[in-house]
Amino acid sequence: MHLSENPITFHLGELFCGPGGIAIGAKLAEIPEHPELRIHHAWANDIDPSTCATYRTNICPDDPESVLCQDVHTIDIEKNSFFQAHPFDAFAFGFPCNDFSLVGKQKGFDGKYGPLYTYGIRILKAYQPKWFLGENVSGLSSANDGHAFQQILQDMQDAGYRVYPHLYKFEQYGVPQARHRIIIVGIRDDQTDEDGNPLAFYPPVPTTPNPEDYKTCKEAIEEPPIPKDAPNHEFMRMNRKVRERLELIGEGENVFNAKALQSHPDLLLNVHGARISQLYRRLDSTKPSYTVTGSGGGGTYVYHYKEPRALTNRERARLQTFPDTFIFQGSRQQVRKQIGMAVPCDGVRQIFESILKTFGGIPYQHITCNISLSEKRDAVA
Description:
By secondary structure, the chain is an alpha/beta fold.
């Protein structure tokens, strides 16, 4: 199987696009020895106006109309002229994860957001892109006793695709954050190599498989230093009690296990039944960050390993591997949500490069998918 004589470029459409983590990963994906292998933006959709403004600013400033800011429930996918006006042969959808997350009630298909993946299935059936990338939280595999995940995979196959699901631990791919996500790559059934063999995708081999090689949160935040005038680098106001509480919490500790805090009952949290390990949890400067989230009240903002404060949005963006040139639009809370819901740019870049190599017939180091299509899984570790 050899690289085609014709340039192999793809035009990517995105449903539930978020601020552009996947889009930046696609934009940066490249094979230096084969510059013709690239992924270009075609169109994107999201419901949130500030998120769409961020995407337009950074991904397609010269083509703002290619972002459809609309509730997917109101889009006639099969007959909408927008899709005809923006042809695409590749597709990505990070379908909303709220009802599949391990943090929360995990309603799966019974929740408000669980069924939203079906709109991606409709895109696949109606427009038949050559390949797709679907993304969700690791809890997807156990929602509805595992039935939801198996149904999603079956629906993707029924749409005409061979599917390759894999749980990526992004800290093993150089991302300074312990972020675990299921990525499903699908290749259309008729896609073959020059010998007529079906194209098959394999996850790229981890670049930092050993914990001692993980990129730390300190390295991400401090190397190089963030300029004081960098966009989205405003510091949150910390009231006296919160600051005093953080000063007694050591690196890697939270409000419940910090020993120095126990002798200060006025600074403890008296919340019945609350033992969430991330509440007022300080980062450990020798390790990747814990998972950056996009929502939550006091105590959930991700806290600096040295200074008694919450991280700025620019620091959170560094943990998600957004470049410093990426400018988020909206209020500080809206930006926090955008960052927390995004896919790490550099992690997904490596997956996109493996897709390009698959279609270009370029060998690469890979591993076997760690999620089986044939067996019911109660959870993915």
